[in-house]
Amino acid sequence: MNFEKPLAERMRPQSLDTFVGQKHLVGSGKVLDLMIQHKKAHSMIFWGPPGVGKTTLAKIIAQALDMPFYTLSAVDSGVKEVRAVIEKARQIGHALLFIDEIHRFSKSQQDSLLGAVEQGIITLIGATTENPSFEVISALLSRCQVYVLQALTEEDLRLLVNRALTEDVWLQRRNIVVKEWEALLGLSGGDARRLMNLLELVVNAIPEGQTEITNASVTSVVQQKSALYDKNGEQHYDIISAFIKSIRGSDPNAAVYYLARMIEGGEKPEFIARRMVILASEDIGNANPNALLMATTTFQAVQMIGWPESRIILSQCAVYLACSVKSNASYMAIGKAEAFVKQTGDLPVPMHLRNAPTHLMRKIGYGNNYQYAHDFPGNFVFQEFLPEEISGTKFYEPGNNQSESRMREYLKYCWKEKYGY
Q1: What's the pLDDT at 173?
Q2: Which of 32, 46, 94, 228 is most buried (most C-beta within 10 Å)?
Q3: Model-level pTM?
Q4: What is the mean pLDDT of residues 403-418?
Protein backbone atom coordinates (compact mmCIF):
# COMPACT_ATOMS: atom_id res chain seq x y z
CA MET A 1 0.00 0.00 0.00
CA ASN A 2 1.25 3.47 -0.92
CA PHE A 3 1.11 5.51 2.28
CA GLU A 4 1.99 8.67 0.36
CA LYS A 5 -1.61 8.78 -0.84
CA PRO A 6 -4.08 10.65 1.37
CA LEU A 7 -6.39 8.54 3.47
CA ALA A 8 -9.37 9.67 1.38
CA GLU A 9 -7.73 8.24 -1.73
CA ARG A 10 -6.65 5.05 0.00
CA MET A 11 -10.22 4.44 1.14
CA ARG A 12 -11.89 5.26 -2.18
CA PRO A 13 -14.36 2.42 -2.99
CA GLN A 14 -13.57 0.26 -6.01
CA SER A 15 -17.04 -1.23 -6.51
CA LEU A 16 -20.68 -0.54 -5.78
CA ASP A 17 -20.55 -3.17 -3.04
CA THR A 18 -18.21 -0.99 -0.99
CA PHE A 19 -19.73 2.35 -1.98
CA VAL A 20 -21.37 4.17 0.94
CA GLY A 21 -24.52 6.24 0.54
CA GLN A 22 -26.77 7.01 -2.45
CA LYS A 23 -28.80 3.83 -2.04
CA HIS A 24 -31.48 5.32 -4.29
CA LEU A 25 -28.96 5.02 -7.14
CA VAL A 26 -26.57 2.19 -6.27
CA GLY A 27 -28.72 -0.16 -4.17
CA SER A 28 -29.66 -3.57 -5.47
CA GLY A 29 -31.95 -3.20 -8.47
CA LYS A 30 -31.44 0.57 -8.66
CA VAL A 31 -30.52 2.40 -11.82
CA LEU A 32 -26.71 2.35 -11.60
CA ASP A 33 -26.64 -1.20 -10.30
CA LEU A 34 -28.79 -2.32 -13.25
CA MET A 35 -26.69 -0.34 -15.70
CA ILE A 36 -23.55 -2.16 -14.59
CA GLN A 37 -25.32 -5.52 -14.61
CA HIS A 38 -26.52 -4.96 -18.17
CA LYS A 39 -23.12 -3.62 -19.26
CA LYS A 40 -24.70 -0.63 -20.99
CA ALA A 41 -23.67 2.88 -19.98
CA HIS A 42 -25.43 6.10 -20.87
CA SER A 43 -24.41 9.74 -20.55
CA MET A 44 -25.30 11.25 -17.21
CA ILE A 45 -24.72 14.15 -14.86
CA PHE A 46 -24.17 13.66 -11.14
CA TRP A 47 -25.50 16.64 -9.21
CA GLY A 48 -24.78 16.90 -5.50
CA PRO A 49 -22.69 18.54 -2.78
CA PRO A 50 -18.93 17.94 -2.50
CA GLY A 51 -17.60 14.64 -1.21
CA VAL A 52 -20.64 12.43 -1.81
CA GLY A 53 -19.13 10.12 -4.42
CA LYS A 54 -19.53 11.72 -7.86
CA THR A 55 -15.96 11.03 -9.02
CA THR A 56 -15.87 7.65 -7.31
CA LEU A 57 -19.04 6.51 -9.08
CA ALA A 58 -17.62 7.53 -12.44
CA LYS A 59 -14.48 5.46 -11.82
CA ILE A 60 -16.49 2.48 -10.58
CA ILE A 61 -18.68 2.58 -13.71
CA ALA A 62 -15.69 2.75 -16.03
CA GLN A 63 -13.92 -0.09 -14.23
CA ALA A 64 -17.02 -2.29 -14.01
CA LEU A 65 -17.79 -1.85 -17.70
CA ASP A 66 -14.11 -2.14 -18.72
CA MET A 67 -14.28 1.14 -20.65
CA PRO A 68 -11.33 3.41 -21.57
CA PHE A 69 -11.58 6.20 -19.05
CA TYR A 70 -10.56 9.82 -19.45
CA THR A 71 -11.04 12.55 -16.89
CA LEU A 72 -10.95 16.33 -17.26
CA SER A 73 -11.48 19.14 -14.80
CA ALA A 74 -13.45 22.10 -16.09
CA VAL A 75 -11.23 24.33 -13.96
CA ASP A 76 -8.11 23.74 -16.06
CA SER A 77 -9.44 22.23 -19.31
CA GLY A 78 -10.94 23.81 -22.38
CA VAL A 79 -12.19 23.02 -25.87
CA LYS A 80 -8.70 21.93 -26.95
CA GLU A 81 -8.47 19.26 -24.24
CA VAL A 82 -12.05 18.11 -24.91
CA ARG A 83 -11.35 17.68 -28.63
CA ALA A 84 -8.14 15.77 -27.90
CA VAL A 85 -10.05 13.26 -25.74
CA ILE A 86 -12.79 12.95 -28.37
CA GLU A 87 -10.19 12.20 -31.02
CA LYS A 88 -8.60 9.49 -28.86
CA ALA A 89 -12.04 7.99 -28.24
CA ARG A 90 -12.78 8.06 -31.96
CA GLN A 91 -9.58 6.14 -32.71
CA ILE A 92 -10.30 3.40 -30.19
CA GLY A 93 -14.01 3.34 -30.94
CA HIS A 94 -15.54 4.53 -27.69
CA ALA A 95 -14.56 5.88 -24.27
CA LEU A 96 -16.01 7.22 -21.06
CA LEU A 97 -15.21 10.87 -20.35
CA PHE A 98 -15.63 12.23 -16.83
CA ILE A 99 -15.71 16.02 -16.47
CA ASP A 100 -15.49 17.34 -12.94
CA GLU A 101 -17.22 20.67 -12.21
CA ILE A 102 -18.85 20.66 -15.62
CA HIS A 103 -20.86 23.73 -14.60
CA ARG A 104 -17.66 25.75 -15.02
CA PHE A 105 -17.53 24.96 -18.73
CA SER A 106 -18.67 27.84 -20.94
CA LYS A 107 -21.41 27.39 -23.54
CA SER A 108 -18.86 26.93 -26.34
CA GLN A 109 -16.97 24.34 -24.29
CA GLN A 110 -20.17 22.44 -23.61
CA ASP A 111 -21.13 22.73 -27.28
CA SER A 112 -17.90 20.95 -28.20
CA LEU A 113 -19.20 17.80 -26.49
CA LEU A 114 -22.52 17.56 -28.27
CA GLY A 115 -21.49 15.79 -31.48
CA ALA A 116 -19.40 13.13 -29.74
CA VAL A 117 -22.11 12.42 -27.20
CA GLU A 118 -24.80 12.28 -29.89
CA GLN A 119 -22.74 9.91 -32.07
CA GLY A 120 -21.81 7.67 -29.16
CA ILE A 121 -18.09 8.33 -29.48
CA ILE A 122 -17.99 9.20 -25.80
CA THR A 123 -20.21 8.39 -22.86
CA LEU A 124 -20.18 11.55 -20.77
CA ILE A 125 -20.34 11.66 -17.01
CA GLY A 126 -20.39 15.20 -15.66
CA ALA A 127 -20.15 16.15 -12.00
CA THR A 128 -21.56 19.38 -10.64
CA THR A 129 -22.40 20.97 -7.31
CA GLU A 130 -24.68 23.46 -9.08
CA ASN A 131 -28.18 23.00 -10.46
CA PRO A 132 -27.62 21.68 -14.00
CA SER A 133 -30.89 23.26 -15.11
CA PHE A 134 -29.13 26.61 -14.86
CA GLU A 135 -25.50 25.68 -15.51
CA VAL A 136 -25.63 23.08 -18.32
CA ILE A 137 -26.88 24.01 -21.79
CA SER A 138 -30.23 22.47 -22.71
CA ALA A 139 -28.87 20.62 -25.76
CA LEU A 140 -26.34 18.76 -23.62
CA LEU A 141 -28.79 18.32 -20.76
CA SER A 142 -31.27 16.62 -23.08
CA ARG A 143 -28.63 14.02 -23.96
CA CYS A 144 -27.85 13.18 -20.34
CA GLN A 145 -29.74 11.67 -17.46
CA VAL A 146 -29.42 13.77 -14.30
CA TYR A 147 -28.92 11.90 -11.04
CA VAL A 148 -29.17 13.78 -7.75
CA LEU A 149 -26.69 12.72 -5.05
CA GLN A 150 -27.44 13.52 -1.44
CA ALA A 151 -25.26 14.58 1.47
CA LEU A 152 -24.10 11.58 3.47
CA THR A 153 -26.03 10.75 6.61
CA GLU A 154 -24.50 10.39 10.08
CA GLU A 155 -24.86 6.63 9.68
CA ASP A 156 -22.93 6.77 6.39
CA LEU A 157 -20.17 8.86 7.95
CA ARG A 158 -19.79 6.54 10.95
CA LEU A 159 -19.55 3.58 8.58
CA LEU A 160 -16.78 5.30 6.62
CA VAL A 161 -14.77 6.07 9.76
CA ASN A 162 -15.15 2.57 11.17
CA ARG A 163 -14.18 1.05 7.85
CA ALA A 164 -11.06 3.21 7.69
CA LEU A 165 -10.10 2.31 11.27
CA THR A 166 -10.38 -1.42 10.55
CA GLU A 167 -9.12 -1.60 6.97
CA ASP A 168 -6.39 1.00 6.64
CA VAL A 169 -3.01 -0.42 7.71
CA TRP A 170 -1.71 2.88 9.06
CA LEU A 171 -4.77 3.40 11.27
CA GLN A 172 -4.69 -0.23 12.39
CA ARG A 173 -1.16 0.25 13.69
CA ARG A 174 -2.27 3.25 15.75
CA ASN A 175 -5.18 1.32 17.35
CA ILE A 176 -7.32 4.43 17.05
CA VAL A 177 -10.83 4.46 18.53
CA VAL A 178 -13.45 7.19 18.35
CA LYS A 179 -14.71 8.00 21.83
CA GLU A 180 -16.73 11.09 20.87
CA TRP A 181 -18.28 11.58 17.44
CA GLU A 182 -19.98 14.98 17.48
CA ALA A 183 -17.08 17.19 16.35
CA LEU A 184 -15.71 14.71 13.83
CA LEU A 185 -19.06 14.26 12.11
CA GLY A 186 -20.25 17.83 12.50
CA LEU A 187 -17.14 19.33 10.96
CA SER A 188 -17.32 16.98 7.98
CA GLY A 189 -20.49 18.63 6.68
CA GLY A 190 -21.67 15.35 5.13
CA ASP A 191 -18.55 15.32 2.91
CA ALA A 192 -16.71 11.97 2.85
CA ARG A 193 -13.50 13.49 1.51
CA ARG A 194 -13.48 16.16 4.19
CA LEU A 195 -14.21 13.50 6.82
CA MET A 196 -11.26 11.33 5.76
CA ASN A 197 -8.94 14.33 5.56
CA LEU A 198 -10.06 15.46 9.01
CA LEU A 199 -9.61 11.97 10.46
CA GLU A 200 -6.11 11.77 9.05
CA LEU A 201 -5.26 15.24 10.37
CA VAL A 202 -6.54 14.44 13.85
CA VAL A 203 -4.74 11.10 14.07
CA ASN A 204 -1.48 12.73 12.98
CA ALA A 205 -1.91 15.25 15.80
CA ILE A 206 -2.59 12.66 18.51
CA PRO A 207 0.58 12.07 20.58
CA GLU A 208 2.15 8.61 20.45
CA GLY A 209 0.64 6.33 23.03
CA GLN A 210 -2.77 7.95 22.89
CA THR A 211 -5.50 6.24 20.88
CA GLU A 212 -8.76 8.07 21.52
CA ILE A 213 -10.41 10.65 19.28
CA THR A 214 -12.49 13.08 21.33
CA ASN A 215 -14.35 16.27 20.52
CA ALA A 216 -11.52 18.21 22.14
CA SER A 217 -8.84 16.50 20.04
CA VAL A 218 -10.77 17.31 16.88
CA THR A 219 -11.51 20.94 17.68
CA SER A 220 -7.93 21.54 18.83
CA VAL A 221 -6.76 20.63 15.34
CA VAL A 222 -9.55 22.37 13.46
CA GLN A 223 -9.99 25.71 15.18
CA GLN A 224 -12.89 26.90 13.05
CA LYS A 225 -15.05 25.24 10.44
CA SER A 226 -15.64 27.39 7.41
CA ALA A 227 -19.36 27.42 6.67
CA LEU A 228 -20.54 25.44 3.69
CA TYR A 229 -21.72 28.43 1.77
CA ASP A 230 -20.95 29.47 -1.80
CA LYS A 231 -22.01 33.05 -2.40
CA ASN A 232 -22.37 32.34 -6.10
CA GLY A 233 -23.73 28.82 -5.87
CA GLU A 234 -26.85 26.96 -4.86
CA GLN A 235 -26.13 27.27 -1.12
CA HIS A 236 -26.53 31.01 -1.63
CA TYR A 237 -30.09 30.57 -2.87
CA ASP A 238 -31.01 27.75 -0.50
CA ILE A 239 -29.96 29.58 2.64
CA ILE A 240 -31.45 32.96 1.76
CA SER A 241 -34.64 31.06 0.90
CA ALA A 242 -34.61 29.34 4.29
CA PHE A 243 -33.92 32.70 5.98
CA ILE A 244 -36.86 34.42 4.30
CA LYS A 245 -39.22 31.51 4.91
CA SER A 246 -38.23 31.37 8.57
CA ILE A 247 -39.10 35.05 9.01
CA ARG A 248 -42.34 34.55 7.07
CA GLY A 249 -43.10 31.61 9.35
CA SER A 250 -42.54 33.78 12.46
CA ASP A 251 -39.57 31.75 13.73
CA PRO A 252 -36.91 34.20 15.01
CA ASN A 253 -34.62 31.35 16.11
CA ALA A 254 -34.42 29.82 12.63
CA ALA A 255 -34.09 33.31 11.15
CA VAL A 256 -31.00 34.21 13.18
CA TYR A 257 -29.53 30.74 12.53
CA TYR A 258 -29.67 31.19 8.77
CA LEU A 259 -28.51 34.78 9.19
CA ALA A 260 -25.45 33.43 11.03
CA ARG A 261 -24.88 30.93 8.20
CA MET A 262 -24.79 33.79 5.71
CA ILE A 263 -22.57 35.90 7.94
CA GLU A 264 -20.08 33.06 8.37
CA GLY A 265 -20.15 32.46 4.63
CA GLY A 266 -19.22 36.07 3.91
CA GLU A 267 -22.51 37.15 2.38
CA LYS A 268 -22.80 40.86 1.65
CA PRO A 269 -24.87 42.55 4.40
CA GLU A 270 -26.56 44.76 1.81
CA PHE A 271 -27.93 41.68 0.06
CA ILE A 272 -29.43 40.36 3.29
CA ALA A 273 -30.90 43.76 4.19
CA ARG A 274 -32.36 44.21 0.71
CA ARG A 275 -34.20 40.92 0.96
CA MET A 276 -35.65 41.93 4.32
CA VAL A 277 -36.96 45.16 2.77
CA ILE A 278 -38.81 43.10 0.18
CA LEU A 279 -40.16 40.73 2.83
CA ALA A 280 -41.36 43.57 5.02
CA SER A 281 -43.74 44.66 2.29
CA GLU A 282 -44.57 41.27 0.76
CA ASP A 283 -45.21 39.29 3.95
CA ILE A 284 -46.05 41.91 6.59
CA GLY A 285 -47.36 44.87 4.66
CA ASN A 286 -50.06 46.94 6.30
CA ALA A 287 -50.48 44.50 9.15
CA ASN A 288 -47.49 46.38 10.60
CA PRO A 289 -46.38 49.31 8.41
CA ASN A 290 -43.44 49.93 10.75
CA ALA A 291 -41.84 46.74 9.42
CA LEU A 292 -41.03 48.40 6.11
CA LEU A 293 -39.61 51.41 7.95
CA MET A 294 -37.47 49.11 10.10
CA ALA A 295 -36.19 47.14 7.11
CA THR A 296 -35.47 50.25 5.05
CA THR A 297 -33.63 51.84 7.96
CA THR A 298 -31.67 48.60 8.41
CA PHE A 299 -30.58 48.72 4.78
CA GLN A 300 -29.38 52.30 5.21
CA ALA A 301 -27.72 51.54 8.54
CA VAL A 302 -25.65 48.58 7.33
CA GLN A 303 -24.30 50.80 4.54
CA MET A 304 -23.27 53.42 7.08
CA ILE A 305 -21.94 51.12 9.79
CA GLY A 306 -20.10 48.45 7.85
CA TRP A 307 -18.86 45.06 8.99
CA PRO A 308 -18.84 43.43 11.54
CA GLU A 309 -21.13 45.68 13.64
CA SER A 310 -23.85 45.68 10.97
CA ARG A 311 -24.57 42.02 11.79
CA ILE A 312 -26.17 43.28 15.03
CA ILE A 313 -28.49 45.53 13.06
CA LEU A 314 -29.37 42.69 10.68
CA SER A 315 -30.17 40.46 13.64
CA GLN A 316 -32.39 43.09 15.25
CA CYS A 317 -34.33 43.55 12.04
CA ALA A 318 -34.65 39.81 11.36
CA VAL A 319 -36.02 39.19 14.85
CA TYR A 320 -38.43 42.13 14.59
CA LEU A 321 -39.78 40.96 11.24
CA ALA A 322 -40.08 37.36 12.42
CA CYS A 323 -42.05 38.45 15.48
CA SER A 324 -44.32 40.80 13.54
CA VAL A 325 -47.91 39.98 12.59
CA LYS A 326 -48.06 38.90 8.94
CA SER A 327 -50.16 39.82 5.93
CA ASN A 328 -49.58 39.34 2.22
CA ALA A 329 -52.76 41.19 1.25
CA SER A 330 -50.97 43.98 -0.64
CA TYR A 331 -48.74 41.47 -2.41
CA MET A 332 -51.75 39.41 -3.46
CA ALA A 333 -53.60 42.53 -4.59
CA ILE A 334 -50.92 43.64 -7.05
CA GLY A 335 -50.59 40.07 -8.33
CA LYS A 336 -54.32 39.89 -9.06
CA ALA A 337 -54.27 43.33 -10.65
CA GLU A 338 -51.31 42.45 -12.89
CA ALA A 339 -53.01 39.26 -14.05
CA PHE A 340 -56.21 41.21 -14.73
CA VAL A 341 -54.34 43.84 -16.75
CA LYS A 342 -52.75 41.14 -18.90
CA GLN A 343 -56.18 39.62 -19.46
CA THR A 344 -58.16 42.80 -20.19
CA GLY A 345 -55.52 44.93 -21.91
CA ASP A 346 -55.47 48.73 -22.04
CA LEU A 347 -58.94 49.70 -20.93
CA PRO A 348 -59.73 53.42 -21.29
CA VAL A 349 -59.35 55.54 -18.17
CA PRO A 350 -62.70 57.13 -17.19
CA MET A 351 -62.94 60.64 -18.59
CA HIS A 352 -63.47 62.31 -15.22
CA LEU A 353 -60.12 60.93 -13.98
CA ARG A 354 -58.04 62.07 -16.92
CA ASN A 355 -55.65 64.99 -16.59
CA ALA A 356 -56.68 68.06 -18.57
CA PRO A 357 -53.70 70.40 -18.92
CA THR A 358 -54.90 71.97 -22.21
CA HIS A 359 -58.05 73.78 -23.31
CA LEU A 360 -58.68 71.21 -26.04
CA MET A 361 -58.56 68.34 -23.60
CA ARG A 362 -61.00 70.09 -21.26
CA LYS A 363 -63.25 70.83 -24.22
CA ILE A 364 -63.55 67.18 -25.20
CA GLY A 365 -64.41 66.14 -21.66
CA TYR A 366 -61.12 65.35 -19.90
CA GLY A 367 -61.61 65.84 -16.16
CA ASN A 368 -65.32 66.65 -16.41
CA ASN A 369 -67.36 65.84 -13.31
CA TYR A 370 -64.36 64.82 -11.22
CA GLN A 371 -65.29 65.18 -7.56
CA TYR A 372 -62.49 66.24 -5.19
CA ALA A 373 -62.81 63.97 -2.13
CA HIS A 374 -61.69 66.62 0.35
CA ASP A 375 -64.63 68.81 -0.59
CA PHE A 376 -67.04 66.28 0.90
CA PRO A 377 -67.89 65.16 4.46
CA GLY A 378 -65.48 62.57 5.79
CA ASN A 379 -63.15 63.35 2.86
CA PHE A 380 -64.95 60.79 0.75
CA VAL A 381 -67.31 60.87 -2.21
CA PHE A 382 -68.68 57.85 -4.03
CA GLN A 383 -67.49 57.97 -7.61
CA GLU A 384 -66.13 55.54 -10.19
CA PHE A 385 -62.37 55.06 -10.41
CA LEU A 386 -62.05 51.79 -12.34
CA PRO A 387 -62.69 51.57 -16.08
CA GLU A 388 -66.37 50.94 -16.76
CA GLU A 389 -65.69 47.44 -18.14
CA ILE A 390 -64.29 46.18 -14.82
CA SER A 391 -66.31 48.24 -12.38
CA GLY A 392 -66.69 46.44 -9.06
CA THR A 393 -63.64 44.20 -9.45
CA LYS A 394 -61.98 43.68 -6.07
CA PHE A 395 -58.21 43.12 -5.93
CA TYR A 396 -57.41 44.00 -2.31
CA GLU A 397 -58.76 41.88 0.54
CA PRO A 398 -57.58 43.13 3.95
CA GLY A 399 -55.76 40.60 6.11
CA ASN A 400 -57.12 39.20 9.35
CA ASN A 401 -55.14 41.35 11.76
CA GLN A 402 -55.83 44.34 13.96
CA SER A 403 -54.30 46.95 11.67
CA GLU A 404 -56.00 45.79 8.48
CA SER A 405 -59.27 45.17 10.33
CA ARG A 406 -59.44 48.92 10.86
CA MET A 407 -58.76 49.38 7.16
CA ARG A 408 -61.56 46.93 6.37
CA GLU A 409 -64.00 48.92 8.50
CA TYR A 410 -63.11 52.12 6.66
CA LEU A 411 -63.48 50.42 3.27
CA LYS A 412 -66.82 48.98 4.35
CA TYR A 413 -67.98 52.49 5.22
CA CYS A 414 -66.83 53.76 1.82
CA TRP A 415 -67.33 50.91 -0.60
CA LYS A 416 -69.69 48.32 0.86
CA GLU A 417 -72.18 48.66 -1.97
CA LYS A 418 -69.57 48.40 -4.71
CA TYR A 419 -67.04 45.92 -3.34
CA GLY A 420 -68.86 44.24 -0.50
CA TYR A 421 -66.29 44.92 2.22
Answers
A1: 84
A2: 46
A3: 0.58
A4: 84
Residue 411 dihedral angles phi and psi, to the nearest 5°:
-65, -35
User: Is it true that domain 234-323 has CATH number 1.20.272.10?
Assistant: yes
- Confidence class of residue 1 from pLDDT cuts 50, 70 and 90? very low
Q: What percentage of the chain exceeds 90 in pLDDT?
A: 25
Give me the amino acid identity at 289: P
How many C-beta atoms lie closer than 10 Å to residue 189's C-beta?
19
Among 222, 307, 221, smallest CA distance to 264 is for 307
Mean pLDDT confidence for 100-116: 85
Sign of the dihedral through C-alpha 157, 162, 167, 172: positive
- Give the CA-trace dihedral at 331, 335, 337, 338, to 10 degrees: 130
Cα 61 from Cα 69, distance rounded (Å): 10
CA dist 288 and 265 (Å) reads 31
* CATH 3.10.28.10 fits domain 22-148: no
Instruction: Compute the Cα dihedral for 83, 88, 94, 97 and give only its sign.
Output: negative
For residues 319 and 252, the answer to whether their CB atoms sit within 8 Å is yes
Query: SS3 helix, strand, coil % of the chain, rounded to 5?
Result: 55, 5, 35
H helix intervals, 287-397 = 290-305, 310-323, 329-344, 359-363
Contact, 248 vs 283, CB < 8 A?
Answer: yes
Contact 190, 52 (CB under 8 A): yes
DSSP, residue by residue, 117-135:
HHHTSEEEEEEESS-HHHH
Sheet holding 145-148, edge to edge: 69-73, 95-100, 122-128, 44-47, 145-148
Asked if residues 147 and 45 have their Cβ atoms less than 8 Å apart, the reply is yes
Measured in whole angstroms, the distance separating CA 283 from the mean position of its chain's CA atoms is 20
How far the first Cα of the chain sits from its last, in Å, is 80
Per the CB < 8 A criterion, the answer to whether 325 and 275 are in contact is: no
Q: Where are the domains of the chain?
A: 22-148, 154-221, 234-323, 343-419
| Structural contact between residues 318 and 247, judged by C-beta atoms closer than 8 angstroms | yes
